[in-house]
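STRUCTURE:
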């Protein structure tokens, strides 16, 4: 049972809520003002016989006064406060931070799970437990929820957004969300609960985690140096995933605030500028109890809700364990609308008819996929290391189970990588792969620069590279997953220049604190790599923070690490070729042996592959990163082609650039720089990255030409 707040602070807050002075309470009780002042300053407490009179004066019951675990309902009611429009006439078309991410539940899972990892309570050694609940409301359940969030107060604001902001992106999304709720008679809630986390501690307005999440933008107050987030943008995914721009919050605190820990509730609404009943409103709004200490008691603050209120708001938590529940109202997953899913029949019942839960089933499946893909390492333990994270997903409809709670198992989602990490924790790695199931270990150097642009190397951090055979359930083979202290997958990359015939493998790179607390320069590597991550935390490269704190060339240290990793992987998976094998390969290229009875097939039209699409961008290291699509002719055998990348110039020959990486994606293989196409396919895709050192001028000043040449391309 929760311990009650001290009587004095509790009584002072109730008087403010009831808009009542100490003198007025003293008069109602027939006592002196000095007696009431002594209670509030904790110099004394009222006699038991006076407690009943105090309850009557505050309009509550005697039990509430005795336990003091909730506020009284008398006085100022819970309501929505809408921020007034700016006096200088400025307007916001929505929260710009939300545009940093897509309305995608997989992006949401990555950002929210990372935040929960950052706020894990580490002293007890237990993992943080994160549960995602998808809950579709219809009929009476939907009407009851709308009443709980005071929809009648909000409707004029949503109507104004539909009328005045229809030409803005946020306005269109909100208008579509409202129409979907009323036309289809349903609303999807997506709740994220974490347990064994710090909770939203701190004051409503002063510096603290509560204000950083609920009141402010671009502010990150993480609990540890190894935190995944650093921009303060991750929380914006919550509102970006809501078609109504509404998120409700219930937090259980690890450190008491106002003597309380349980059921600290508030809501935040993100809408664009609007004009309602002759008044302009800037954008955001908050659901809470009016703060009598603010001018006109207009601004609302969080309140300590009772169990009935959190139940009506669908915010009931399983236990009193610290953590926070975020309820996304009107959750939508735009990315899932473009995917048919691996098994469309999974969205139909046993009689073959759609049961109306296709959207929530797709969201459930995509959440499980994202958690297993990005957080498999955080959910893996071994040796003396325990998992940092446990995750699960469940789906409901009007309180009834649609899909049972599914606990994400890292060994099921990422069997090879999980095996590799456990072998490292258990100390069972080997120097070289000789048998199935083994995990080979190599150390790779990360040469850390001096901060402030100083020349030379601060120190060499030994990253840990783990390589093991790939299994069918691992997804794309021959990949390196890189991660640091919070054990979230930061970067996924292929290994360039692999010869044909290499046995499929998976590799894991552990750097920073993930390489071990005792690893040399682990903290410095953690700080350096964290600064090299963009807001999405999905790669390492040039960032503004890296440039400001280190230098504009600091990202070259990461590129060198990648080179070391690729070389180490090849040393483990590529078998040395004998001189005889090399000579045989040369002869095979010069000789063509026709099959018996084979008759050349006549074809009409071009018999050469043709480039049919090209997507190019400049990478963090100044290289061109290219994705190309090739249209293949209708012939049994397509000749091998060499992709050649050139710089476009006004006169003279075009300078040829070198490839740093050339990777087959679909319908082809890369063999010694040439593309060999799979028989009887009509389309092939490959990716490549140029070697920035072969560029004669800055990449930003150049234009690119890509050609397909027959044979070796010379």
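SEQUENCE:
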């Amino acid at each position: 049972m929760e311990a009650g707040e001290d009587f004095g602070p509790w009584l002072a807050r109730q008087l403010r809520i009831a808009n009542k002075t100490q003198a007025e309470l003293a008069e109602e009780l027939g006592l002196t003002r000095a007696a009431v002042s002594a209670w509030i300053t904790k110099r004394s407490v009222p006699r038991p016989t006076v407690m009943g009179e105090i309850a009557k004066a505050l309009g509550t019951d005697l039990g509430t006064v005795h336990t003091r675990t909730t506020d009284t309902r008398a006085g100022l009611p819970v309501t929505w406060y809408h921020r007034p429009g700016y006096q200088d006439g400025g307007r916001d078309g929505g929260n710009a931070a939300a545009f940093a991410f897509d309305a995608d539940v997989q992006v949401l899972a990555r950002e929210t799970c990372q935040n929960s990892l950052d706020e894990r309570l580490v002293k007890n050694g237990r993992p943080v437990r994160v549960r995602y609940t998808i809950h579709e409301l219809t009929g009476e359940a939907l009407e009851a929820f709308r009443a709980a969030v005071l929809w009648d107060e909000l409707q004029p604001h949503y109507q104004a957004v539909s009328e005045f902001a229809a030409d803005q992106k946020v306005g269109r999304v909100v208008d579509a969300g409202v129409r979907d709720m009323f036309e289809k008679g349903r609303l999807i809630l997506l709740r994220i609960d974490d347990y064994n986390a710090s909770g939203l501690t701190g004051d409503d307005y002063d510096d603290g985690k509560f204000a950083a999440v609920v009141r402010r933008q671009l502010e990150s107050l993480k609990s540890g140096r190894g935190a995944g987030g650093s921009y303060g943008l991750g929380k914006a995914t919550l509102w970006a995933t809501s078609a109504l721009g509404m998120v409700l919050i219930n937090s259980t605190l690890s450190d008491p605030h106002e003597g309380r820990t349980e059921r600290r509730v508030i809501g935040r609404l993100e809408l664009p500028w609007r004009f309602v009943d002759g008044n302009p409103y800037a954008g955001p709004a908050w659901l809470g109890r009016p703060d009598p200490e603010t001018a006109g008691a207009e601004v609302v603050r969080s309140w300590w809700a009772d169990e009935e209120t959190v139940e009506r708001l669908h915010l009931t938590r399983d236990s009193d364990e610290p953590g926070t529940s975020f309820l996304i109202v009107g959750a939508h997953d735009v990315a899932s609308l473009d995917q048919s899913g691996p098994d469309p029949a999974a969205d139909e019942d046993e009689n073959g008819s759609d049961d109306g839960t296709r959207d929530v089933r797709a969201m459930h499946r995509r959440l499980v996929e994202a958690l297993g893909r990005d957080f498999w390492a955080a959910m893996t333990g071994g040796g003396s290391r325990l998992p940092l994270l446990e995750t699960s997903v469940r789906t409901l409809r009007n309180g009834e189970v649609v899909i049972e709670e599914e606990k994400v198992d890292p060994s099921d989602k990422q069997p090879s990588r999980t095996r590799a990490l456990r072998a490292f924790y258990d100390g069972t790695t080997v120097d070289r792969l000789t048998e199935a199931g083994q995990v080979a270990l190599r150390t790779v150097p990360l040469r850390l620069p001096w901060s402030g642009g100083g020349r030379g190397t601060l120190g060499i951090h030994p990253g840990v590279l783990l390589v093991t055979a790939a299994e069918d359930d691992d997804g794309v083979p021959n990949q390196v997953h890189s991660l640091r202290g919070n054990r979230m997958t930061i970067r996924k990359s292929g290994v360039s220049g692999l010869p044909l015939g290499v046995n499929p493998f998976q590799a894991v790179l552990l750097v920073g604190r993930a390489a071990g607390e005792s690893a040399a320069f682990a903290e410095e590597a953690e700080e350096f790599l964290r600064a090299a991550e963009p807001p999405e935390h999905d790669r390492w490269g040039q960032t503004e923070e890296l440039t400001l704190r280190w230098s504009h060339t600091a990202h070259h240290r990461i590129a060198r690490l990648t080179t070391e990793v690729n070389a180490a992987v090849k040393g483990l998976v590529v078998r040395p070729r004998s001189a005889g094998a090399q000579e045989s390969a040369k002869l095979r290229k010069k000789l063509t042996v026709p099959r018996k009875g084979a008759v050349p097939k006549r074809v009409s039209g071009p018999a050469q592959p043709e480039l049919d699409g090209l997507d190019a961008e400049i990478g963090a290291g100044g290289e061109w990163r290219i994705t190309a699509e090739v249209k293949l002719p209708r012939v049994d055998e397509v000749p091998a082609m060499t992709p050649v990348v050139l710089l476009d110039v006004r006169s003279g020959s075009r300078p040829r650039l070198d490839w740093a990486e050339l990777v087959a994606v679909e319908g082809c293989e890369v063999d010694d720089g040439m593309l060999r196409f799979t028989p009887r396919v009509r389309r092939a895709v490959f990716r490549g990255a140029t070697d920035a050192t072969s560029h004669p001028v800055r990449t930003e000043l150049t234009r690119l030409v890509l050609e397909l040449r027959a044979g070796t391309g010379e």
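REMARK: Residues 555-573 form the longest helix (19 residues).
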